[in-house]
Amino acid sequence: MALRWRLLLLWLFMLVVSGALAYIIREVYQLGSEVQAQKSVEQTAQACAALQTEYARSVKPGGDIVDRELMNAVLNVTLDDLPGVEGGFWHDSSRFVAYAFPSHVGTEKKKDVPFTERKRVEALAGRSIARGVPMVDVLSGSREIVVLAACPVKSERHLATWAMARSPVAAGKAYDEVNRGLGLLLAFVIISGLWLTFSLYDWGKYFTRVERDLAENSTSASREIAATGDAELDRVVTAFNQFRTRLDTERAHAAELGTLLERSERFTALGRMAAAVAHEVRNPIAAMQLKAENALLAQPDSQRRALEFVLHEIRRLDETVKELLKKAEPVSTHSRLVCVSSWLMERVDAFAEQSAVAGIDLRTKVDVESWSFDPLSLGRALDNLIANAIQHTPRGGVVTVAAKKNTSDTAMILQVRDTGPGVSLDIEPRLFEPFTSGRRGGVGLGLALAREIAVAHGGTACYLHKASEASGACFELEIPWLAS
């Protein structure tokens, strides 16, 4: 699961736990209020019964049932031990005949029945007298619970005692504090959720930037990734940049090893070339030796023919050695601005006589005015391609030498196309390797040399599998602009 979803689930879990905690706190507080209210009910009923019993026992037989002094004395004595309880006597005709609140906290003694509860007290006392049983009434308000109790005085049908207590409920000051605390808890959860959301958004934005930078880094040329400002992501970025530095160092080392390997391959190729030279030289020498020996024993005419044969073989041997040595020369480039049309015509004119003898139409097509390259080394490469094309094109064929720019105008393409049989599929994968030739008697160094010269110019050499004609071969040298 993604990190953002795990953090979201964690926040939802915090929200659920906070909600459950808030519910439990409210329930506990409500339970405490209910216990307090129940205690007030029991205390009020106890006070009412005590007033009823004490007054009935204290009143004189045959005396006035409504003795206000006795009532006040009984009220003060009985309610003094019951904090928060007030009470009195109620007569159905005289109404409130006595009242006392001895535990009242205030600067002045409270003497009057609370105005807001008078009617409820009268109604409850009347019902208690009418039914002859104690009665309790609980009034739940927003701030407090008012508990009323009324008890009929048994010796007098028209007289009742009453007691009243107040119990603060959840809407009181303590409950306001609880609600304030729960509100702070809810605000904390909401703010933490918003903070988590914005943090995840910023983190996702930073992560996307790092991901994009990593995707844009190529395997050949990586670049350093800038820090994001996020501590955790910057640790990954720092690790990547350190890895990139080590990778660049290893690439440089690998390039050095590649250079050494290339030199080793060149020495191997030179060894193979030397073997080929030895093979080509030994046969003519053996033939010359045999003919020369015979010439010493033969007649003058025979000696003349033998000497002519010896000279012919010597010339062939000399040409072979020259060709091998020329193609084994090291490649070096010295670029300068060259007029392509003049340079190309010089290269083609060098093969005019050879193409005419072979009956081949040698054509040119130039779409580049000037370009920067080494005319000598690139001329060697182009000569090899033209010579190969003439050697593989039958009489009556066409060899086309063209110069044009690539689609982005960043490189010049030299193209040599012929109408010969094309390249055999079995040698095509090894076409540019040294000593690979499709012509009998060929050395196989021309294409390898052409590729080396193209690479020395920072370009490439390739064989097009499908030429524009139905048959034939097409080779291209792509040469980028080289500063002189």
List the helices and strands and how they pair.
Elements: H1 3-58, H2 68-79, E1 85-91, E2 95-100, H3 118-131, E3 135-140, E4 144-152, E5 159-168, H4 173-216, H5 231-297, H6 300-327, E6 336-339, H7 340-349, H8 352-358, E7 361-366, E8 370-373, H9 375-392, E9 398-405, E10 411-418, H10 446-456, E11 460-464, E12 474-480
Parallel strand pairs: 7-9
Antiparallel strand pairs: 1-2, 1-5, 3-4, 4-5, 6-8, 9-10, 10-12, 11-12
The gross shape turns out to be rod-shaped
Number of strands: 12
Give start-end ranges of low-pLDDT stretches.
none
Percentage of residues in helical conformation: 55-70%
**Count of helix runs:** 10
> What class do helices, strands and sheet pairing give?
alpha+beta
| Radius of gyration, whole Å | 59 Å
Q: What series of H and E elements makes up the topology?
A: HHEEHEEEHHHEHHEEHEEHEE
Assembly status = single chain
Please report the distance between the alpha carbons of the first and last residues: 59 Å
**Lateral strand order in the biggest sheet:** 2-1-5-4-3
Describe the main β-sheet briefly: 5 strands, antiparallel
Q: Beta fraction of the residues?
A: 15-25%
Mean pLDDT: 79
